[in-house]
Amino acid sequence: MVLIFSLIISAISILVGSVNYISINEGYTFNSTCRNSFECRGKLICLEGTCRCSVELIWNGTNCIMRQMAGLQCTSQIECQDDLLCVEGSCSCHETHYLKDKQCIIRKQSSEVCNNTEECLSTLLCHRHTCQCMSSDYWNGTTCRLRREINFPCKNRLQCKETLDCRENSCQCHDTDYWDGVYCVNRKAAGMPCSSQNECQDDFRCLNESCSCQMLEYLNGDKCFRRQMAGMHCTSQIECQDDLLCVEGICLCHETHYLKDKQCIIRKQSNELCSTTEECLSTLVCHRHICQCISSDYWNGTTCKLRREMNFSCKNRLQCRETLDCRENTCQCHDTDYWDGVYCVNRKVDESNFLKYSYMKQIQK
């Protein structure tokens, strides 16, 4: 037993004696060549023939020290643990991570479950326990980007601003909407105020600052129907085209027009050429292919009026009854005529005087 103990002591003595031991304060410094750790100063160890700090320590210029955890002070990046940054004198997590229980946890991306916004990537927020972009932004796969305005290029609807859709690779409103300068809003129905055609639904036009049916249509309820042409059935005036009247259930031309080839043609006035009386205004007749008043009437510029009787005021002879003349703005007979109660007739002469006058004329010849 004594022999074994002596042998162990001898072996230790030989081993220790073979090491070139150097004092801790006198050993080799950082990055110096070494054969073993006993030759290195302080907490340095000999790694691959060089004095270095162990993995969990860093060299601060004089000694190996522990790397700082999140929240602890630092003067340079190297003082912080590998997953930390030295920001404003403090070891902080990278922006892609957040601090939890003194550990840096990777932030969550879009659509991942969260408890608060801190857990989400910097451009995301935690809404209804889901990391997501603000309503004004869209997720492009790595970050949130501002949604695009109308007419900007796009690949999908999410890239377009709220209410816009991606149509033919361009942010546009739906067919049922129009752009009011800020958002897409529903096109307006009949009777609603408008400032441009684009604001009204496809069936309507903007007329007098109100959405209305097309010119050849009328509104029944909330729909537009085509107006009826001449000769077609109707129940009210609005069902007929603008130049027609609903008379006894039939769309007819106005009295100032006549129907020809399913169209209303304006009637002709006095002295215009005609083929039939139907072509002339209602008070005129077509006589010898000319629209004119009947003999008992005169044309006042717009219609035929009955010629005026004896002693009625007048402006011209046409206003006076047949055989009368307009004299001093009054319908009168000629000087050689007299009024017999119906017409102007030639005044009568003394027959004896007439014979004498005729005889004297013959003698003179």
Q: Could you describe the 3D structure shown?
A:
This protein has 365 residues and is mostly beta strands. It has a domain at 229-266. Helix content is 8%, strand content 30%. The chain is built from 2 helices and 32 strands. It has helices spanning 2-18, 351-364; strands spanning 45-47, 50-52, 57-59, 64-66, 84-87, 90-93, 97-100, 103-106, 125-127, 130-132, 137-139, 144-146, 165-167, 170-172, 177-179, 184-186, 204-207, 210-213, 217-220, 223-226, 244-247, 250-253, 257-260, 263-266, 285-287, 290-292, 297-299, 304-306, 325-327, 330-332, 337-339, 344-346. The strands form 16 sheets. Strands 1-2 form a two-stranded antiparallel sheet. The protein has a two-stranded antiparallel sheet with strand order 3-4. A hairpin with a 2-residue loop joins strand 21 and strand 22 (250-253). It is rod-shaped and about 185 Å long. Mean pLDDT is 84; it is low at 1-24.
Radius of gyration: 57 Å
Continuous helix count: 2
Overall shape: it is rod-shaped
Report the count of strand segments: 32
Chain oligomer state: single chain
β-strand amount: 25-35%
Q: State the secondary-structure class.
A: mainly beta
Strand order of the largest sheet: 1-2
Q: Between the first and last Cα atoms, what is the distance in angstroms?
A: 207 Å
Helix content: under 10%
Largest sheet: 2 strands, antiparallel
What's the average pLDDT?
84
Low-confidence regions? 1-24
Secondary structure layout plus pairing:
Elements: H1 2-18, E1 45-47, E2 50-52, E3 57-59, E4 64-66, E5 84-87, E6 90-93, E7 97-100, E8 103-106, E9 125-127, E10 130-132, E11 137-139, E12 144-146, E13 165-167, E14 170-172, E15 177-179, E16 184-186, E17 204-207, E18 210-213, E19 217-220, E20 223-226, E21 244-247, E22 250-253, E23 257-260, E24 263-266, E25 285-287, E26 290-292, E27 297-299, E28 304-306, E29 325-327, E30 330-332, E31 337-339, E32 344-346, H2 351-364
